[in-house]
Prior knowledge:
Layout: E1 2-6, E2 13-16, H1 21-27, E3 34-38, E4 41-47, E5 50-57, E6 60-64, E7 72-73, H2 74-82, E8 90-92, H3 106-118
Antiparallel strand pairs: 1-2, 1-3, 3-4, 4-5, 5-6, 5-7, 6-8
Amino acid sequence: xxxxxxxxxxxxxxxxxxxxxxxxxxxxxxxxxxxxxxxxxxxxxxxxxxxxxxxxxxxxxxxxxxxxxxxxxxxxxxxxxxxxxxxxxxxxxxxxxxxxxxxxxxxxxxxxxxxxxxxxxxxxxxxxxxxxxxxx
Length: 136
């Protein structure tokens, strides 16, 4: 089962038949922030001709690096979806980084926001807590 998630579209998620993968993969609009998930591998289509590939194994976030970069040609993402178990060069992802969809990883931002809610006095200048009554 191949799952497609669209983070900036009305239709948020759907299941894709492997026979239709290529057509859907190249037809999807990068502006909808699409993520294809299959067998533990996530392919983020981040532009018309580029993608990024990630995997989570035993609690570790990893990303695929080829030719010294984690930004891959979009066609390469399709190849990886077709053979997710092949021997790829997975590298540990740093905690605070921009995600493949060009935004901070949601889980890590959520933890930061909860920490600010508990200790608003520890907030860096310019940061605002949901419970802080700060002058605008």
